[in-house]
Known about the structure:
Elements: H1 3-32, H2 36-49, H3 57-61, H4 64-76, E1 83-86, E2 91-93, E3 96-98, E4 103-106, H5 108-111, H6 155-172, E5 173-177, E6 185-187, E7 191-193, E8 199-203
Antiparallel strand pairs: 1-4, 2-3, 5-8, 6-7
Amino acid sequence: MSDRQLRDEVTTLYLAGHETTANLLSWTFYALHRRPEVIARLQEEIDRELPASLPTLDDLKRLKYARMVLSEVLRLYPPAWTIARNVVEDDEICGYRVPGGAFVLLSPFISHRLEEYWPDPERFDPERFAPQSGKARHPFAYFPFSAGPRVCIGKHFSLFEAQLILSMILREFRFQVIDHSRIGYRAVSTLRPDRPIRVRLTRR
């Protein structure tokens, strides 16, 4: 890469990975606050697998259930709720003509709720992402970071960042979402809660 491209790639990682990861973590606390059994399993894994010091990348790779939880949050609340693509030439998709030059929007938010791929799609269930469970699922049924050659450059960075923050918080604290009323969606450039998700932390 040229110096300019390297600078642009680093800037993209920094800017694109800031709000999206913050939204992911906000939705994670909201999704977990009524699921004590999931929180207990998360904390057991964190207590077992994480050292007392700052975790390394290898430590985070052992947090398999934490990754399952974050994957399920991304299914229900993908920060990138729409993904735009330009059509470079005329095409036909499922019987629909798509002209070259058209602007096409794909929506993980909608696709992740299709019952043909996700039974009981509104239910929060990290077991959907257990190692063997997704083998029969269509490869494009789940695409919170897009897919194919244009997949998000920050995919792995974002997931490790979210794992690190979530595990460090749950290692030290119990949490409680203060306002239990339903949070709605604010679908702008990213999928945000329609009001702040306020969390109270207490030492474990």
